[in-house]
Amino acid sequence: MFSTDAIRFLLNKVDSTSYHKNKNNLLVIVFGVLGDFDSIEYATKLVSVLPRFKSLGVDLIGIGIGSTKSRELFCSFTGFPKHQLLIERDNTLHCQLELYEGVNTPFGSWGNMLIMCGGFGSPGTLKEVLRGYTGDRDADQSIASDEKIKIGFLPELSGKFFDMAGGNGFQRPFELATLRLRNMLEVLHHWNEYVPNINFLTQRGGTFLFDRDDQLLYSYKAQGILCYSETMSEPLSFLDRSLGIL
Hints:
Number of helices: 11
Radius of gyration: 18 Å
Order of helices and strands: HEHHEHEHHHEEHHHEEH
Strand order of the largest sheet: 3-2-1-6-7
Oligomer: single chain
């Protein structure tokens, strides 16, 4: 649970923007570092349903650790609306919300990140990595058959490849892993811009859904890398349960 002071702190930050003017339902996504794999993947999922948010009266605000430059790159790559993304220079907000900072060892930020990538102090990560390679019949298809995927220096890949690998209409083997590789190469190519401060590499994020009276309907604290939702096969299913909109 979150304290009243922590929730008020979050809402005051959102209310300081010019975007959330109407008393709509409010979805606040607190990302970690904008160059984090979770942040980019989650943002892409959210962007795919932006039209429905608008038509159903749900305001979306993202908050992430980064800089003006990283916000530019993040929004350009994911399609996340720039005016709906707030930037934090550090993890003060995350600490106020008692979000998971990740493991803390003598090996430093990079060492902590590698330890968590190995599944230590990062529950669900190895299972989620494996799901990216094996596919998931409970998850939606992410790459259309006629879509072309360009991943760094590798040859262009057709979406038909995944049709041949497993069919269509669901997440096929290697489909999610391919998108994650593309995300990783994007971040590595612009590392200094996406991650201006490596001290917050392991900081996890959270999801907060409020009704029109600012009452908290749903919240989730991420505990592991690549585990930004409690239902990774359907990351936005909490909206259906809470508001009945998706």
